[in-house]
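hi! just following up on the protien thing from before. the input was this:
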Amino acid sequence: MPPRSFSPKVVTANRLLEGDAVWLTPSGRWSPDMREADLIEDEGRAAERLAEAESQAGLVVGPYLADAKAGPGGPEPTHFREAFRARGPSNYRLGKQAELTGS
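and the predicted 3d structure came back as:
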């Protein structure tokens, strides 16, 4: 069986204090907007960025690599779980939910 090719990834986690989903940007800061994430297309670089995220235990919890694709405004999710996380909590229309619907 041939090895699977590497698909683009973003590093994501949850903010330690608020629990909000965040994405690691090219500059190394955490953003609540997935479109600002560093879209990583190299497996070695993905491992490096994940290690960087894992070293920030005082800021985030549960960092991992999530599949993503390039979109017109920046990285976009390729899986429903990440699409759900990018939209924010679904039990109320505040924050990201309100911004997306204009409520």
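The beta strands are 9-15, 21-24, 30-31, 60-71, 74-77.
The first strand starts at residue 9 and ends at 15.
cheers
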